[in-house]
Amino acid sequence: MTLKLYFDLMSQPSRALYILLKNIKCNFTPVPVDLREAEHYSEEYTKINRFQRVPVIDHNGFVLTESVAILKYLSREGIIPDSLYPKDSKQAARVEEFLEWQHAGLRLHCAMFFRVKALDPIITGKTPDPKTLQGYERRMENALGTFNDLWLGQGKPFVAGDHISVADLLAACEVEQPRMAGYDAIAKYPNIAEWMGRVRDHFNPHYDEGHVILNKIVRNKSKMAPKL
């Protein structure tokens, strides 16, 4: 088997797949694609992924985009173990229930807050409009509140029930993203805080490895923050 993962650790779903493949001891070839250097727009990469995004896998010549599609495919191929992506129909449906929800339910709002507050100012050199930023923060907090209360507040330790799954890893990588914009969800949402600890513990040391760039950015921002 030959499996290549095209990824950038600044990308939430890229981090999830990178951490997952490391965790399950999959013999894969990591192929970094530097988004900051616009390598995803190169002619060479566009031949691999016409959508010019990461992550992408190449499995024995079969090229596939979109993180959720990749997770489902790797499960069907027997690469992801049942312990993280159940084969049982009902248990798998619980995992996929979250995978379907998270695109617009969680990812959109966390990613847009990060983009408006942290990324756009770097690209444009302009400070975001406070009222506009407040709107994005409000929508993100509504999403985090839903995740905290309705997904994690049902007396179960993980997103899909009693056992950790790929849904937890994908969600954790999304919740981490706003930290680069100075917002840490664990400070406000107790269910998220406890759950994040369980997810990190399960996937470490690879969880920290996948977040090494993000954590470095967070530390640097902390050092630059004015002392009160």
TrEMBL record:
GO molecular function: glutathione transferase activity
Keyword Transport: no
Domain named GST N-terminal: residues: 1-82
Pfam family, one: GST_C
Gene Ontology process terms (BP): glutathione metabolic process
Keyword Transcription: no
Ranges where the GST C-terminal domain occurs: 88-224
Localization of this protein: Cytoplasm
Catalysed reactions listed for this entry: RX + glutathione = an S-substituted glutathione + a halide anion + H(+)
InterPro entries: Glutathione-S-Trfase_C-like (IPR010987), Glutathione-S-Trfase_C_sf (IPR036282), Glutathione_S-Trfase (IPR040079), Glutathione_S-Trfase_N (IPR004045), GST_C (IPR004046), GST_C_Theta (IPR040077), GST_N_Theta (IPR040075), GST_Theta (IPR051369)
Keywords: Cytoplasm, Transferase
Gene Ontology CC, one term: cytoplasm
Family: Belongs to the GST superfamily. Theta family.
Protein name (database record): Glutathione S-transferase theta-1
